Amino acid sequence: MITRRLLLASLTLALLGAPFAARAHEPRRGPNGGQKVDIGTNHAELLAAGNMLRLFLFDGADRPIPATGATAQVVILAGGRQATVALAPSGDNVLAGTGDFLAARGIRAVVTLTLPGQRPVQARFTPMDQN
Length: 131
Fold this sequence. Notes:
It is a single chain. This protein is α+β, with helices and mostly antiparallel strands. It has one helix at about 1-20; strands spanning about 30, 35-40, 40-50, 50-60, 70-80, 80-90, 95-100, 105-115, 120-130.
């Protein structure tokens, strides 16, 4: 009887803990001052200034990933308006683009990133400070 209860309690704890074990890292400040989040098996840091977005790419160990051949699309919510911004390579590990928005405290963004030879992955940046 005790073994059955112990087994049931262990199974319940394991099932309840599973979603937390698979949880991604919380957003954090990146080396360029933007918000850095998990995107697929990698990391990305997004900076917004004026009407420009810059997305810095890093691998799982936080080493820069070349942006060559990568593309990204960002849906951004700023000032109660939604805008879509296409990003293209703009440096070693940077994608950049401009759009019809103005960066302000509390903007939100969803990034869809496609690295060469890989499936698209998404990340949410919310809320963000302007940089």
